[in-house]
Specification:
single chain; mainly alpha; 1% strand; globular; disordered C terminus
């Protein structure tokens, strides 16, 4: 449920509109390509997670296989990814909730960040606070709430399919690929094409890696992680393809291009205003599952980095409920600042850049371990490991360089800052540098 909660959310509820703007009806291909690249990464994740069931995801695997410096870069990229995902989804949730609040007299200036002329986005900060409270109660309680919200989300998407599919018109899929296959900038400076859309839509798929950050808390990782990672990705990919096909066929793609609420817009376009309101309300209820999954994963990555000495050891202290309280609160404060004050907009694409770097590292770890230690016990053994490993590396690199140039520059600046921090602090404080046993 954690993986489904993380994957099915912002991507299908909002990014399908962005994808339609970038690729037209060929966004169906974009979903399929992004899903295929993620499948290679998921297979690599599964083998590594069952061999090394340590919280920290790609960071821990890189630490054990590729060394401390590469692990720091990967961990720094994951911090970027998870922070921006949590902040972006919180702002998206606020976009649905704010009209309800302002209707009862809540000040509009407190529902918008400074970039939109407001003071602070308090609803976004509020929902991060609520989810943080759930996590502090312990993973058992938060998992139960997550399961209920995942059910709400799946029921909502099923409702959309029920009403949208009867309006499917193949004429809406013509022309199928109006902007071509490769990513190229148009007259407005926006990159379009199937691969440009895939590079953005990739955001919608990578929630499965949140499961591997919870590996330490699974009872039977050799079974649970295989089911959780691969199962959630397969289920969610099928859901995405069905929803995308129904959406593209119900109305011309120009109707929903760049809409912040594309599914509700489609339902209103076909005369289902009441159902559209239900879908919008369900988004307010269900989007916190994405925040829950990624805030949980973020705290576990911070925990792993602190254990390895890159952050103060006191941050890694576990509460009586089995939750890293200090790390969770620190993470919540950071992402709440981003959601409440800082401009998100196009910079949210940085989340994809950080994720793609981590996925390249995971594919590399798979190949290196197969060559370096072919006889190590592997509870799950990836079939055709060489093909899968190079598929993850090559696919992620292609998507990475399909991102907007501005995003790549910001990614470079973020990682340059990370290298400086590592050189000045992490390199001297790490437990590997002190000769102690690495936690990964």
């Amino acid at each position: 449920m954690l993986g489904v909660g993380a994957i099915v959310g912002t991507g299908i509820l909002t990014l399908i509109g962005v994808g339609a703007d970038r690729a037209g009806p060929a966004v169906l291909l974009s979903f399929a390509i992004a899903g295929a690249v993620c499948a290679c990464a998921a297979l690599a994740y599964t083998e590594l997670a069952t061999m090394m069931p340590a919280g920290g995801s790609a960071y821990s695997y890189s630490y054990a296989v590729l060394g401390e410096a590469i692990a720091w870069v990967v961990g720094w990229s994951l911090i970027l990814e998870y922070s921006l995902v949590v902040s972006t989804v919180a702002v998206g949730w606020s976009g649905y909730a704010s009209p309800l609040l302002t209707a009862i007299g809540f000040p509009a200036s407190l529902t918008l960040g400074p970039e939109l002329g407001g003071l602070i986005n308090l609803p976004a900060v509020f929902i991060i606070g609520v989810v943080t409270g759930l996590l502090l109660l312990g993973t058992g309680e938060s998992a139960r709430v997550n399961a209920v919200l995942v059910f709400v989300k799946i029921a909502t998407l099923s409702l959309f399919l029920f009403y949208a599919l009867p309006h499917f018109d193949a004429a809406n899929l013509d022309p199928f690929m109006p902007y071509g296959f490769g990513a190229s900038a148009g007259d407005d400076g926006v990159q379009r094409g199937v691969m440009a859309a895939a590079a953005i839509i990739f955001f919608a798929f990578y929630g499965f890696d949140a499961i591997s950050t919870a590996a330490e808390e699974t009872k039977r990782p050799e079974r649970d992680l295989v089911i959780g990672i691969l199962g959630s990705l397969i289920v969610c990919t099928l859901i995405y393809l069905f929803i995308a096909a129904a959406a593209m066929g119900a109305v011309p793609f120009t109707v929903l291009a760049d809409s912040p609420e594309p599914l509700a817009l489609i339902l209103r376009s076909i005369g289902r205003e009441g159902v559209a309101q239900v879908v919008a309300a369900a988004a307010v209820i269900a989007l916190p599952t994405v925040i829950l999954a990624f805030l949980y994963g973020q705290s576990r990555i911070f925990l792993a980095i602190a254990r390895d000495g890159f952050l103060p050891k006191g941050l890694a202290r576990i509460s009586a409920r089995g939750t890293p309280t200090r790390i969770t609160l620190t993470t919540a404060v950071l992402v709440a600042i981003l959601a409440g004050l800082l401009p998100i907009g196009e910079i949210a694409a940085l989340a994809n850049a950080g994720t793609l770097i981590a996925f390249v590292a995971v594919g590399t770890c798979l190949l290196v371990l197969r060559r370096r230690a072919p006889d190590l016990p592997r509870p799950f053994r990836v079939p055709a490991a060489t093909l899968v490993g190079f598929g993850a590396i090559g696919g992620c690199l292609y998507l990475f360089f399909s991102l907007p140039v501005q995003t790549l520059l910001w990614c470079f600046a973020w990682n340059l800052l990370g290298v400086v921090i590592y050189a000045l602090y992490g390199n001297r404080k790490s437990i590997l540098d002190k000769g102690e046993n690495a936690s990964a």
